[in-house]
């Protein structure tokens, strides 16, 4: 890439000509129409670039490329100033947005690494949310229930077996939701029937408590998604089940989760601090909402694609 305006070889003379203090921002690496570009600005631009650009900046030619980008940006900025664009609504809006981001950085980003969070705080969160880090294996089932009154269980089992054969045949024909559709037609569990028998994810203990040990044992014997089991005799009647998916057990110790907890608590704390900052500023400001004007506002038409 060629430098069309300032060559690095000429920088010592340009630096002497500008006669500006350079210590706060490093050494002068270029001068564009009287405005010095300092080494700190170049280093910052390099650090914000892509991995490839950062690698190239290890050479003089690579840094020259980054400097050229800064020079071009400075030229355009100076031209915008010459045209008086600094006072345009678009520039002022972008400036205000940048100011908002900067005040958030100053007010809220003092400890993004979470160095001030103590182990006691991290452990407290871990204990309060232990089920997010330690939980048993869970399965997601579809369930079809047929109630069995005294003396009718054998008949109901035959019906359940026939339904299972029908569902199996439908799936072989390519019907995607054969089990769910049959649940909606035939299941006598009014709670799960509208959802096609979906019980969501449940651990073995939950299945035993809600539907009995027989169904839980049959469910955890299934290994492959789409596998079905039945007829299953339970206290409620006769059941068919289909395994949708499994979630492996999770057992993350505090030591394993500690650093991820630190990041989580930093984000939570930043959100709380943000809300507190807005409340403080709002309390100190006089805010008036013109309800009549707000009610008359209409959404702008969607932009054409």
Order of helices and strands: HEEHHHHHEEHHEHHEEEHH
Q: Which regions contain 5 or more consecutive residues with pLDDT less than 50?
A: 1-23
Structural class: alpha+beta
Total number of helical segments?
A: 12
The separation of the N and C termini measures 37 Å
Residue share in helix: 40-55%
Q: Numbering strands along the chain, what is their spatial order in the largest sheet?
A: 5-4-7-6
The rough form would be described as: elongated
Mean pLDDT: 87
Task: Indicate the radius of gyration in whole angstroms.
Answer: 34 Å
Total E-strand runs: 8
The profile of the biggest β sheet is: 4 strands, antiparallel
**Strand composition percent:** 15-25%
What can you tell me about this protein's structure?
- The protein is of the alpha+beta class and 305 residues long.
- The strands form three sheets. A four-stranded antiparallel β-sheet has the order 5-4-7-6, with helices on both faces. The chain has a two-stranded antiparallel ribbon with strand order 1-2. The chain has a two-stranded antiparallel sheet with strand order 3-8.
- β1 and β2 form a beta hairpin.
- α9 runs antiparallel to α10.
- The protein is elongated, with a radius of gyration of 34 Å.
- The two termini are 37 Å apart.
- The N terminus is likely disordered.
Give a brief rundown of this model.
This protein has 305 residues and is an alpha+beta fold.
Which features characterize this protein?
single chain, 305 residues, alpha+beta, 4-stranded antiparallel β-sheet, two-stranded antiparallel sheet, 52% helix, elongated
